[in-house]
Amino acid sequence: MTRWVFVADLNRCVGCQTCTAACKHANATAPGVMWRKVFDIEIGEFPDVRRAFIPTGCHHCAEPPCMHVCPTTATKQREDGIVMMDYDRCIGCRYCYQACPFKVPRFDFETRVTRKCTLCYDRILLSYSKPACVAACPVHALSFGYKHEIILVAKQRVFRKKNARYILGLKEAGGTDMLTILPARPEDLGLVVAPHKVVNHNLDKLRITGAGFMGASALAGLMYMYDVLTREKNKSEHDKPG
Fold this sequence. Notes:
- Helix content is 34%, strand content 20%.
- Strand 4 (75-77) and strand 5 (83-85) form a beta hairpin.
- It is built from eight helices and ten strands.
- The protein has helices at residues 18-27, 65-69, 95-99, 121-127, 132-136, 147-160, 201-207, 210-238; strands spanning 4-9, 37-45, 48-56, 75-77, 83-85, 106-108, 113-115, 142-146, 166-168, 178-182.
- It has a four-stranded mixed beta sheet. Strands 2-3 form a two-stranded antiparallel sheet. The chain has a two-stranded antiparallel ribbon with strand order 4-5.
- The mean pLDDT is 81.
- By secondary structure, it is an alpha+beta fold.
- It is globular and about 50 Å long.
- It has a single domain (4-232), classed as Alpha-Beta Plaits.
């Protein structure tokens, strides 16, 4: 089965947010709901300080912990590695957000379900097109293609460029289908540091027992009142870089 991989090169990204706009247009997301976004950070120490931009989105983990904690099987992984979400099954419990090592899934306050990037799988399968964000990037900071080929390209960039020092996603979370070329290790940039192994199948099975399902359902029923009281806090938390 063909495996795809998505690469974001921080050395090329200029923070224009074109990928964000393209993603919103392609997926018709609600106002304030962004599956992909670019954050800016400062790198280095005075006087050698510069800005860097980090495109974020679902990492499509090889062993997605979000899928194993979902009490309604709304989150599933395709054979080609793309992690999908069935919004008709989602109850908005946000277990996937808590389990995600990169804190990627976004809660849609209008439809009350959790959403995330799907790598524009419909464009890939139906028209053999690149994901909307990749096609729209004006500086070619985003790349997409066959996994074995793109990983080789990413490693060559790190070898050739002095500012490219680390490839995020080769080992984190058991390996992911989204790679990010960083100028330093993620912990040195203030990013979420995912362990190499994050899935505990035995623990995950306990989380989705009948009791766990009932608890999630009850939580979803009370979510409206909770969101009214904490809406602004939740939005600001979800807008932090992962």
